[in-house]
Amino acid sequence: MEFPTTIPALPTSPEGFRSGFVALIGRPNVGKSTLLNQLVGEKVAITSPVAQTTRNRLRAILTTETAQLVLLDTPGIHKPHHLLGERLVQSARRAIGEVDVVLLLVDGSEPAGRGDGFIVEMLQHCRAPVHLALNKNDLVDPARTEELAQSYRELVPGWPLHPVSALNGAGTSELVAALAADLPEGPHLYPPDAVSDQPEQLLLAELIREQVLHQTREEIPHSVAVQIERIVDDGPRTAVLATVLVERSSQKGILIGKGGRMLKEIGSGARQQMQKLIDGPVYLELFVKVVPNWRRSAARLSELGYRGE
Fold first, then answer.
1. Given this model, what pLDDT does residue 233 score?
2. CA 185 from centroid of its chain's CA atoms
3. Rounded distance, CA 136 to CA 44, Å?
4. Residue 92 backbone phi and psi in degrees, to 5
5. HSE (CB half, 13 Å, CA atoms) of 149?
6. Bridge partners, residue 67, by sequence
7. What are phi and psi of 288, to 5 degrees?
8. Given this model, what pLDDT does residue 6 score?
9. For 301, what's the count of Cα atoms within 13 Å in the CB-facing half-sphere?
10. Is 239 left (phi over 0), alpha (psi -120 to 50) or beta?
11. Phi and psi for 177 in degrees, rounded to 5?
12. Cα(133)–Cα(148) distance, integer angstroms
């Protein structure tokens, strides 16, 4: 993925071309980020089995011959327990009112639950068309397909339902066509080959946080934030200096690990992903810093980019 310093000219869009913004909404850990990466064909959002992985409203760009969809991967909607959680939910709620189409993603391998009902209630007054994607269709026993789908039809009568698998891509082409059909006619908003408009620093920080999510368990993942302090392109390689923030000294010890092994594992995994993103060699230096209660500090959250916008 390249990070152009100038904005290239946009192509002339064919007659009837459609373009606009689509918000991916849902409970934590239903596969929004996995679906986003599947749709655009590249990794632009981090994924992990840990709930509430997504913190920023990431934007991915999917361009077909007839449409351009700007996809917003929003934080999972949940009951917040601190200021960070409140801002993440606020960010997801705000996205609903700013897009042309809303895609509610649910775990279609399970029947509709109270959490899904809460989000559906929140979407009742949404002005944009709403589609419902039943994810994890690859895990569904064919004998239960109709039963599970019916539980969601009863929850959202009249809404379009789309069985999909974010993991293997089944049903995604039909989903894209349906979403595109509800977008307004308009020109290209981004170059056809663009897959994201996110700042390089944000993407690199997220790759480091992803490795923390994969390498650690319990309370560590939710207590971690990453700041990119400096990026230096010295020709043969790109040097990245980053700080990993935690809330307690014990968490710092876990992240560093015995003899620094855990931090080395995190850095090695992140560096490999960065090299794919930048398409070149990367030198990564990580530091761990204790910042007590950073998730409850409005000033610190704003500094880290969590403004609820």
1. 81
2. 26
3. 20
4. -65, -45
5. 16
6. 18
7. -115, 130
8. 46
9. 19
10. beta
11. -60, -40
12. 12
The CA–CA distances, whole Å, from 41 to 1, 45, 54, 63, 293 equal: 12, 11, 19, 11, 37
The packing angle between helices 249-256 and 261-278, to 10°, is 70
Q: What is the pLDDT at residue 65?
A: 94
Question: Cα angle at 122 between 120 and 123, to 5 degrees?
Answer: 65
The answer to whether residues 236 and 281 touch, using CB atoms and an 8 Å cutoff, is: yes
Residue type, 64: T
Residue 48: the pLDDT is 54
CA dist list (Å): 151 to 5, 117, 139: 49, 11, 17
Q: How far is CA 76 from CA 8, 29, 243, 277, in A?
A: 33, 7, 25, 25
Q: Under a CB-based contact definition with an 8 Å cutoff, are residues 140 and 150 in contact?
A: no
3-state secondary structure 245-258: EECCHHHHHHHHCH
pTM for the structure as a whole: 0.68
Helices 114-123, 83-96: crossing angle, 10 deg rounding: 50
Residue ranges of the chain with per-residue pLDDT less than 50:
1-6, 50-55, 309
Place of tokens 């209630």: 121
pLDDT of residue 305: 67
Contact 88/69 with Cβ under 8 angstroms?
no
